[in-house]
Design brief:
With about 350 residues, this protein is α+β, with helices and mostly antiparallel strands. Helix content is about 40%, strand content about 15%. The chain has 14 helices and eleven strands.
Length: about 350
């Protein structure tokens, strides 16, 4: 059963009282056995649908309590309240959680298998902004969310094209799942440019506002494709939950492989039937999250997260972090072994 963030927070004190009682060391081997009564609270609705479609939720030696909690800011809030065990997010949310005083670890990672040929994000350009190329961003108002990957895309773009922070106006504005906050702000002229998802969000923006002059621009070459499964350290120190996570991550790897092989069914079953999208839009959304790799070696993932830290820390006046400390290497091969091949071949 999915529950709302408000309900989870409401009952947070009782849930926090049961966390981490057995105190498993973060360096200890992962337990093999899941004791009775373990519950994992997971905020990933797509994974939920894949699990239920394949009957995997019924095969687990523990119970999953699915939550409609997605997006870095909401996951961080849920972690802070102690009401979520597993979150899913892009490069920035695990880093931001640590900066907010919530120790968190990455336990699975995926990336585009074809990242050399596609970008996860593009810049949406407001109809009357007079921005034709990225160098025209100079002097403009750009949406900026320091706790989300959109913030990384903005700063890396400005660095790549040699525009100083004093030459633009960064408008701090959290994005939303579905991108409506940014596309509405662009359409209204409140901002001139914003990083938006290069999927249905960008297509709808062009469909709705293209006739008025709205358009998109690709950002300079840099990585924007990595996504993480991450958890609070408090979840990992709970012996029962740590054992359950070991099993969950394996099935999560299987889910990536299944989605890679069945984008049309994912489109019909989840995005159309569950989310109510028209068939063509559902397929665009499904293709955005498929053709992914789940690497068995996190060297590339660590470098990607380190580049994100090195980009955002000075801009947001946050302390420098060693990205290696974000990854729990006990889980490194689990999802990749489950997903491969072909999903586990790239790193």
């Amino acid at each position: 059963m999915a529950v709302s963030l408000a309900l989870l927070v409401l009952f947070a004190p009782a849930r926090r009282a049961t966390a981490g009682r057995e105190g498993l060391a973060l360096s200890a081997p992962l337990p093999d056995r899941v004791p009775p009564g373990v519950v994992l609270r997971v905020g990933d609705p797509v994974t939920r649908w894949v699990f239920e479609r394949n009957g995997w939720d019924k095969q687990l030696p523990f119970r999953i309590e699915w939550a409609e909690i997605t997006g870095g800011p909401d996951v961080t809030e849920a972690f802070h309240a102690g009401v979520l065990d597993v979150g899913f997010g892009a490069s920035v949310p695990p880093i931001h959680a640590v900066w907010m005083g919530i120790p968190a670890r990455i336990i699975a990672f995926r990336e585009y298998a074809d990242r050399d040929r596609r970008q996860a994000w593009v810049f949406g350009i407001a109809p009357k902004s007079k921005i034709r190329v990225l160098s025209d961003l100079r002097g403009k108002r750009i949406a900026f969310s320091p706790s989300q990957v959109q913030g990384q895309v903005v700063i890396e773009t400005l660095n790549a094209i040699g525009i100083g922070r004093d030459e633009v106006t960064l408008v701090e504005l959290p994005s939303s799942i579905g991108g409506d906050v940014y596309t509405n702000a662009l359409a209204s002229g409140a901002i001139d440019a914003a990083p938006i998802r290069n999927d249905l969000v960008a297509q709808r923006y062009l469909r709705d506002y293209g006739p008025d002059g709205a358009h998109t621009l690709p950002h300079p070459p840099f990585r924007d494709d990595g996504t993480n499964v991450y958890v609070p350290e408090a979840t990992l120190t709970d012996r029962g939950k740590a054992a359950a996570l070991r099993v969950f991550v394996r099935y999560w790897g299987l889910a990536q492989a299944w989605a890679n092989a069945h984008p049309d069914e994912l489109a019909r079953g989840y995005f159309a039937a569950k989310r109510g999208l028209p068939a063509a839009d559902a397929l665009v959304s499904a293709r955005y999250i498929t053709n992914v790799s789940v690497p068995r070696d996190w060297t590339g993932a660590t470098a990607y997260e380190q580049a994100t830290i090195d980009t955002l820390a000075p801009e947001t006046k946050r302390p420098h972090l060693d990205a290696a400390t974000l990854f729990d290497r006990r889980f490194e091969r689990i999802a990749g072994d489950a997903a491969a091949p072909p999903g586990g071949t790239r790193s």
